[in-house]
């Protein structure tokens, strides 16, 4: 059993490919997200958004100039991620929030690691200087560990701000610098 778990967790990265999403990927993305809406605390939405809503959300990310990525394994979309504006006020324009979702049953196979690594690299190539992870549920050990691996540090926890599945839910917040971070003025590299 331990050898099987180790083998599953160390699956070669070559069997997955991260790429820019297309509108044709959105039915798979919508199915992945709907699972989390219905069954998990990673999102505080309670009704799965329609395909049209998911397409509009992707468009908003792309209009910002931020990446919206998918990962494929053997031709199947097994995860997705994107960066979005942290807030709409102009002073926050150099800060992004990341979102990473891995298909049910694909955890521990390097999908989240491949996605978040690619997302950070793409965002560091842009004008942004900070990335936040606003994680649904303090017990979401997988997401917290994934973000720690990429240099995110905890900056606080909003206690009992969500109510889903009949209980109060926290949101840990983690942060990491992108590129030079606050080590210089925007526009300077």
Structural class: alpha+beta
Number of helices: 5
What is the mean predicted local confidence, pLDDT? 92
Q: Give the biggest beta sheet.
A: 7 strands, mixed
Instruction: Please state how the strands of the largest beta sheet are arranged side by side.
Output: 1-2-3-4-5-7-6
Provide the helix percentage: 25-40%
Low-confidence stretches: 1-11
Describe this structure in words.
The chain is an alpha+beta fold and 189 residues long. 31% of the residues lie in helices and 30% in strands. The protein has 5 helices and 7 strands. A 7-stranded mixed β-sheet has the order 1-2-3-4-5-7-6. A hairpin with a 2-residue loop joins β2 and β3. The longest helix is centred in the N-terminal third of the chain and has 14 residues. The chain is globular. It starts with a helix and ends in a 12-residue tail after the last strand. The N terminus is likely disordered.
Compact description:
The protein has helices at 2-9, 26-39, 51-64, 111-124, 141-149; strands at 16-20, 68-73, 76-85, 95-102, 130-134, 153-164, 167-177. The protein is α+β, with helices and mostly antiparallel strands.
Which descriptors would you attach to this protein?
189 residues; alpha+beta; 7-stranded mixed sheet; 5 helices; disordered N terminus
Question: Helices, strands, pairings?
Answer:
Elements: H1 2-9, E1 16-20, H2 26-39, H3 51-64, E2 68-73, E3 76-85, E4 95-102, H4 111-124, E5 130-134, H5 141-149, E6 153-164, E7 167-177
Parallel strand pairs: 4-5
Antiparallel strand pairs: 1-2, 2-3, 3-4, 5-7, 6-7
